Task: structure prediction
Amino acid sequence: MPPQAPFGQEALDRKIAVDPVTLLLPASFRNRQHALVNPTIDIQRFLQTDLLVPRLNQIHPYLWLAGRPVPPQPLNYLVATSREITVDERIDMHMVWEKSRRIHLKPLPQYLLDHHFWDSHLICRGPCCIPGPDSDQPPPTTKECTKELSQSLIRYKSDFQIARTHHLLPENLDWETWLRLVQHLLESNAINPKNINPRYLYGELRLSRLNKIYAIRHLQVFRGYQFTRHTYGEIFREYLTPLTAATIYVALVLTAMQVGLATTRLNNSPAFQNASYGFTAFAILGPLVGILLVVLIWAVQFITNLIETCQFNRHRSVDIERSGL
Result:
């Protein structure tokens, strides 16, 4: 048994006032050392993690391959086109959709609707050059420019109701307040392309295209931008599905060739005889080679993941020992 309770009695006392800034932020967030920390201890570092999209900024010249440079479609359109709205707090997955028609949306943070929080932590008074969350450099004293609220997703009252249903908006926000907020943003210079992150010049981004861009641009063939498969069984199914379809097509072609060989014209054609011979050999060796390639890809990915897991565990153990956890 521990010598004492891990929290004091005041932690559950509702009569004790809570710092207003604390109410705007999540209970905790994970830092670069993968430890859970209080976001109020280092608000700027938390904002970097919660709002910046360095991975998308790195491939910004190629984003046109994954989406169109137009504002995103409203929520009512997404619902009408059978998109499945998935709440996702990861900012780099915001407005990214999968081939299963599932689209990831980040809920609007409460602190972005607080004027005092903007004055204290978000207004840029000087060069906006805070390093990204993966940088080893400490954040400077200047504020980070963050002016994208994704208000273009909610244009109509029906969009507002859909957002409330999926918990994409704070509970204390009503339609009239949202109208005033959007009107202020449209009338001000906040939505000027020069004042927002270049990522938000694009609307929805296709995850499969982002994976291909990362595979080619950064040679991350096995991880890509954000692969959705989490088990090796899913990997086998993903690779074997097109192989199965190709095998069925080959079987249909072989059947057609058998019918062709039964005719007098094609049976006496040397070219068709050679083609049938070559395709028959391909039909025998092709699926076998394909299966061997799938097994080879699985083996390489398994070994790669094993090495990365061992390295991560070693570094994580060092971080835990240093922090005294």
Remarks:
- Residues 14-217 form one domain.
- The first strand starts at residue 29 and ends at 30.
- The longest helix spans residues 270-323.
- Residues 127-150 have pLDDT under 50 and may be disordered.
